[in-house]
Amino acid sequence: MAYIIVEPCIGTKDTACVDVCPVDCIHPTADADDFESAEMLYIDPDECIDCQACEDACPVNACISEDDCPEEWEHFIEKNAEYFA
């Protein structure tokens, strides 16, 4: 299972998770054209290697495993995937 980014990231977009990701699967990066307009950051489920580095780095606890996703945030699984579609 991949990690996803959930509600606490909305409006925060702290890039500590981007900095520690060994496979660069978290977007948009701070230098990307769409960074300012993006509501939050997203994890590419096809690229994520489930290493947990983002979870440990996130100051607002917005990075979680799909397996640990509470029911009220399950729609973020699709929301992360849609960003990369």
How is this structure best summarized?
Helix content is about 20%, strand content about 10%.
What does this structure look like?
It is a single chain. The longest helix has 9 residues. The protein has one domain: Alpha-Beta Plaits. The radius of gyration is 11 Å and the shape is globular. Strands 1-4 form a two-stranded antiparallel sheet. The two termini are 18 Å apart. The model has no long low-confidence stretch (mean pLDDT 96). The chain is α+β, with helices and mostly antiparallel strands and 85 residues long.
The largest sheet is: 2 strands, antiparallel
Shape: globular
- Could you say how many structural domains there are in total? 1
Query: What is the spatial order of strands in the main beta sheet?
Result: 1-4
Annotation field: number of helices: 3
Stretches with pLDDT under 50, minimum 5 residues: none
Span from first to last CA?
A: 18 Å
Characteristics:
two-stranded antiparallel ribbon; 85 residues; globular; Alpha-Beta Plaits
